[in-house]
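Task: fold both queries, return tokens.
Query 1:
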Amino acid sequence: MTATKILTLITLTGIALMAGLFFGYGNSVMPSLEQLPAGQGAAAMNLMNVAIYNPLFLMIFTVTGLACLPLILLGFVQRHPGRWWLLAGSLLYFVAGMITMSINVPLNDQLATLDPYSPEGLAEWTSFAGAWSTANNLRAIACTLSVITLGVALASSTRPRPVGPLPANPYQYPGTVPPR
């Protein structure tokens, strides 16, 4: 297995974990929090936002992004069938990262500044939940598409490429024997 394939597989795994996290939040966590009274939903979200900043999450989120950098470079310089898929998959993860850093994190930070049970906190939660969920779903989609494209890159790089035109008769390949 080549270094590019190993790096692609590691990156694909990290992105798949992030896609699962984002999907889980969008599919079950946020709808559940929105069912709670507003102050409780906001308080629970604040607790989760503190808990998610743990070494394992930060390592996967960051190392995966860093692993995308050489894949982007390889997408431009290597000449193999999956190179454009490598580029697309890596860039899609950066899209998810940009959504996270420009929308979700600032919304989290704003929510954390307010008392969730105050009138301001209750109003913030109402606008927060919809905006945060929309951004979260977009990053889940970007990560899912990234997983698909990196999977295609891996599959493309493992296919044998024919050398020259294929003969009309498959038994014209060297070393093949026609059936008796």
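Query 1 returned. Query 2:
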Amino acid sequence: MRVILDEEQLGVMKLSDALRKAQSIGRDLIEIAPTANPPVCRIVDWGKFKYETAKRDKEKKSVSHKLKEVKFRVNVHEHDYTTKLRHAEEFLDKGNKVKCQLQFRGREMAHQDLGHALMQRIKRDLATMAVAEMEPKLMGRSINMTLSPLPANKRKRRFEPPSEEYVEDTEDETEEETEAEAGNDGAAVAE
């Protein structure tokens, strides 16, 4: 078997020789690649090795999904609706879950059908970015729905943010405007 100590290769050894070498150093012999030809073993401190692998595995698993919230009203205007969907898409694009909440106030509770229709529209508009983890559900005076992002390669934004281009107004004053201003100033001075 091929034996590695720290980052140094000790070469190909018999199992008994590799075990003797590990015991003389006060460490353990661990098989790293059993399918390699010859198999690869490493001389390491078992406790430290176990701790580092557990730490590495924990880092891989710790992909945190935050829950972001977007609130709507029944009589939301089109521009506000698209702005809120644009924000929801940004959250989903970053891998966060989105909770959509539609609040009813006062007599709006009499028009719950409009609220459910709006939530279905939100779900339909964000279908290219997310899937409904929790379907729209009436809870007290609000309807809640939770959306989870699709895998990154399947996401497609529909509500792109406006372009950041800013065109400066670089018009120079025309000679006529300059002369007119000078004429007014000249008349005031002559008096």
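Both queries returned. Flag for query 2: DSSP finds five helices and eight strands in the chain.
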